[in-house]
Amino acid sequence: MSWRLIVRPEAEADITDGALWYDEQRPGLGIAFTAAVRRAIRRAVENPRACRLMRRSPEVRRVRTPRFPYRVVFLLKDDLVSVFAVIHDKRHESTWIERLQKS
């Protein structure tokens, strides 16, 4: 099956915020962070059902980013992978649950 991908604006904002923060820590690290997130998203699109199930209805899954302590959280419906949060591991699940409820 071929999966379609949507990265929602709030997830894009998460990626930008993370990249800016990492770049402040060390120049160039923001680019590495963005690349790691993109690799995680690519893994999710290649085989979304291999990613950890967080909620059954609606089907929400997550994949961790390599090197950085972040999770890419996405909704899986029909042939669509919809990324709606990219959050630090220290943040509580309520962050993505609130976003899911708003959509």
Features:
103 residues, alpha+beta, YaeB-like fold, 5-stranded mixed β-sheet, 3 helices, 43% helix, 29% strand, globular
Descriptive notes:
With 103 residues, the chain is of the alpha+beta class. The chain has a single domain (4-102), classed as YaeB-like fold, CATH 3.30.2310. Helices cover 43% and strands 29% of the residues. It is built from three helices and five strands. Strands 1-5-4-3-2 form a five-stranded mixed beta sheet. Helix 1 (9-25) runs antiparallel to helix 2. It is globular, with a radius of gyration of 13 Å. The two termini are 25 Å apart.
Helix tally?
3
Broad structural category: alpha+beta
Average of the residue pLDDT scores:
95
Q: What is the chains' assembly state?
A: single chain
With strands numbered from the N-terminus, the spatial order across the biggest sheet is 1-5-4-3-2
SSE order, one letter for each helix or strand? EHHEEEEH
What is the tally of beta strands? 5
| Total of domains | 1
